[in-house]
């Protein structure tokens, strides 16, 4: 079995061993910022040949990192980069020809998460993703020419894009193990010394590339201050700060027209409520649905109940114990404004989340 196939087998076995493993402890979708530190191997592919998947000794290492931001359940925005070595030496005689380069790259990218609530659960411990980005690189190459003991140093800047994927495995609520492979395509055909020469530079040739395989750790955190309000089991009242934060978040819960489907832009505010409930296990939540007076009374009652149930189900899907949440629809029976104007009706179409304490 070749080295390439061995690598494929190891990747496959690792992935199969993890598929389907879930954990409600992984709440990283609430921690919208992530900082990663990683290191790994670079493997060259270009005019001197392709050396992917351990086709030669793993002599060229690099270190890197990333900073990412949760955009929504499907996408993260990220800036990432690395610094390290890249190279290849052939078996020519009397001296191995080739190159060794110091390569630095910085990229802006977008990550598509398969654990988005549609393909896999957001709370999955096993979190695969696809990633692509565009940015720039600098290479400082030592190119060994045909004359023994003769080499040329060359520094170059070029644009670069990358694409690939990986998986994050939740170790705690805040810490992930990260495994990733990215293909990096550089708009430079010269840092490997072929076809670079002292007299000319070919600009319209096959560009050089490399794979970058990494392993690292990701620390996920949030700027949400809800976690600073912790209610003990002996408290009888919910602090005003928490009530205000939940009320503000609830005002931003919206649905598709005549539907119980929660709009995507509402989920960030719902996640704020989730974080408060997870950080304060003695809190109970009552979700109340309301409508305006347009339409049939019974239909409005059913719609308000369906919307309250949708919010409750969302909170449960994020890890909140369902025994702590009730949902009730009130239809058009409890308006907070006049139904004679559009502005008033808009205020009456709402979901409220009332909190109470439960001593344990």
Report, as a whole number of angstroms, the end-to-end distance.
60 Å
Can you tell me the CATH class of the largest domain? Mainly Beta
- How many individual β-strands? 12
Spatial order of the strands forming the largest sheet: 1-3-4-5-6-7-8-9
- What's the CATH topology name of the largest domain? Porin
Q: Can you tell me about this structure?
A:
The chain is an alpha+beta fold and 360 residues long. The protein folds into two domains: 3-221, Porin (Beta Barrel); 226-357, 60s Ribosomal Protein L30, Chain: A (2-Layer Sandwich), CATH 3.30.1330.60. Helices cover 19% and strands 39% of the residues. The protein contains five helices and twelve strands. Strands 1-3-4-5-6-7-8-9 form an eight-stranded antiparallel barrel. A three-stranded mixed sheet has the order 11-10-12. Mean pLDDT is 82; it is low at 1-29 and 196-200.
Question: What's the layout of helices and strands?
Answer:
Layout: H1 3-18, E1 33-46, E2 49-50, E3 61-70, E4 75-89, E5 98-113, E6 126-144, E7 151-170, E8 175-186, E9 209-221, H2 240-251, H3 267-279, E10 283-290, H4 297-317, E11 325-329, H5 342-348, E12 350-357
Parallel strand pairs: 10-11
Antiparallel strand pairs: 1-2, 1-3, 1-9, 3-4, 4-5, 5-6, 6-7, 7-8, 8-9, 10-12
